[in-house]
Hints:
Blueprint (H helix, E strand, L loop, with lengths): L1 H21 L2 E7 L8 H7 L6 E7 L3 H9 L5 E5 L3 H7 L3 E11 L3 E4 L12 E3 L5 H12 L8 E3 L3 H10 L4 E4 L3 H8 L4 E5 L3 H6 L3 E7 H6 L1 H20 L1 H12 L3 H8 L9 E2 L4 H8 L15 H14 L16 H8 L11
Parallel strand pairs: 1-2, 1-3, 6-7, 6-8
Antiparallel strand pairs: 3-10, 4-10, 4-11, 5-8, 5-9
Helix pairs in contact: 2-10, 6-7, 10-11, 10-15, 11-12
Amino acid sequence: MRKLTFALSIASAMLGSAAAAQANETINVGICVSWPGYAMMDVAKQKNLISGYDLNIVNFEDPLGGHAALAAGQIDVYGCTADYIPVAVDAGLNEVNVAYLNPSYGVDHVVLAAGMTPETLKGKKVAAPQAYIGQLLMGLWLDRVGIAPGDVDWVNLNADEAVGPMLSGDLAAAYMYEPWISKVIEAAPGTKSIVDTTDPEMLKTGIFMDSLFMNKDFIAKNRPAALAVLKAEWDARAYWHANVEETNQMIAEYLQWPAADVASVIGTNGKSLSGGIYMFDFDESARTCGVLDGAPPFGLPNGSMAGSVALTNEWWIKLGLMKNTIDPAAGIDCSLMGDLVKSGYRQSFQATE
């Protein structure tokens, strides 16, 4: 009888533990590509930084496919580039941007072929991946030097695909990032980077951003979960800031990257890397939303998110990818960031070295 009672008590305890384990609600999170800037949710998952919820994280390696899954409610949260916000509004997709995560801080470049100058570019071929920040960077730089989008012949190529045509002389300029920039410059002396996203004027546009998107129904029907997962993003950044080497290694294992490549994007000082990305802390992001007093970095005004969405929309129209002018507010929901501010949540960190 004692053995039976003991067995029953063990079984009861096991069932109780199983019930407790099953009590956690699952939040489905997507990232659009393998990129350190989107990996903080995995840090939050591994370090148990979100209480009462389990994070199921899917790497789509397909930005448009991830947005389709988000709009359909197959995932709840999605990390990807902010340039899609006007497109999502125009298409009536069931998603909104809830926070800016980090601007490009020199990852993205326009490279000019050897022997070319801005004055000789008209009528020539320029390469950039269509409907991506590379095309925006190329368009903005061309505009700066007095060249309209229709004055050049656009070729839809990513950085790696543009190497051969640059070396063969088929392209006058191309959007690129490392390691392709160094390879082209080494193989074709005289080739040079003419502008990148550390340029103060490019940073002030606020359009070269990674963002966190959420499904509208997820926010409306499960706001506590939406707030919890948003807070977890910033808590993970705080953990990274305090434990950079460990966290960079975790991110490397998650993305299946060499740890040195992770460091080449997000750095080792717990904040940023020139030539990589600049990691917003919560306060900086909240200021771009306009829900916390003070100016964001890089000359961005408080509440700059709407303006950067409008500028992106304007450029998608100039580049022939959109026809309609949208209301930026329709693609933004800063109320979650605002709720965290009202709760007293704050976070500000600087480089540690």
